[in-house]
Amino acid sequence: MKVILGLEVDGETLGVELGFEALSSLVYSIPDTEVNAPIFAALARHPNPSVRANLGDKQNLDDETVLLLARDKDPNVNRSISYSEAFKGIATLELLKDMLALEGDAAANIVSYAGSFQKVSVDEIEQAVKDADIQDPQILMTAAQSWELSIEFIEELTQHPDVSVANTAKETLKNR
Q: Under a CB-based contact definition with an 8 Å cutoff, are residues 43 and 55 in contact?
């Protein structure tokens, strides 16, 4: 992918080719407007994961771009898009299950924001977490801290073999 930055000076157009490092920095500065959605869609296919990950902050992503970023193999891209309101609006149970199975930061974000998904209920996310048989104690501790997950789910975590997870679940139950 070739990226050219264009400048118009006194009616003359000047251009300079940008490498991935410069482009990664510039993605933040591209105005997050609907007009720029096609640019975001094109950048979602850039070979550098930092460019793709920086798109996760944008709200003016079309559904296809959100899904492309959510299915990205790079964990930083998954993590960044999982914060997105656009993602929370279109994510399906199947997609969330796939992301939970990766046991990365995206999984922790999904658990943290379990009540924010429009197409998937908290109960479905709880069951998906159980079905995924998540072993990463950091993700389970995030679940143990949740005020959105059910008391029954948190109670199960009080029996987790990792003392940090178990103690966090007990503390959450005590404070509810």
A: yes
- What distances in angstroms separate CA 109 from CA 105, 106, 113, one per listed residue? 6, 5, 6
* Cα–Cα–Cα angle for 57, 41, 83, rounded to 5 degrees: 25
Q: What is the pLDDT of residues 36-89, one digit of tens each?
A: 999 999 999 999 999 999 999 899 999 999 999 999 999 999 999 999 999 999
What are phi and psi for residue 127, nearest 5 degrees? Answer: -65, -40
Per-position b or e across 15-27, b if 16+ CB within 10 A of its CB: eeeeeeeebbeeb
Kindly state whether residues 80 and 95 are assigned to the same domain: no
Q: Which residues in the chain belong to E strands, given as ranges?
A: 3-9, 12-18
Six token digits for residue 36: 């720029």
Task: Give residue 97's pLDDT.
Answer: 97
- Element holding 87 (H helix, E strand): helix 85-90
Q: Are residues 103 and 70 in the same domain?
A: no
